[in-house]
Amino acid sequence: MATLSIQERKRLRQIGHALNPVVMLGGSGLTENVVEEILRALNDHELIKVKIAGEDREERAAIIAEIASTTGAEIVQTIGKIALLYKKAAKQNAKLSNLVRFAHAAK
């Protein structure tokens, strides 16, 4: 998987700033259903925020890394309990993709 350039990462962070988390992980951790929901959200929106509950910073980082490796998503940024994830959709949906909807904000 190609890593994002500094410019791409910056643009994705600008777009991600306006987003709310679409998936929230509770105490049960990363289940198959949660992975499916994250994959669905990534496929629809391409750029999503995921909120991970829990106070242990290392545990949250491990969960975020596991999400990225399981879904094939790129970690754009993590701030506290929020991770910004990006995965290019095979077929971009202009109505749902955050990249299309917020393209004007990054210019």
TrEMBL record:
Record key words, sorted: RNA-binding
Membrane-spanning intervals of the chain: none
Keyword RNA-binding in record: yes
Annotated CRM domain residues: 2-98
Pfam family, one: CRS1_YhbY
UniProt GO molecular function: RNA binding
PANTHER family the UniProt entry points to: RNA-BINDING PROTEIN YHBY
Designated name of the protein: CRM domain-containing protein
Organism listed in the record: Acinetobacter johnsonii ANC 3681
Highest classification ranks of the organism: Bacteria, Pseudomonadati, Pseudomonadota, Gammaproteobacteria, Moraxellales
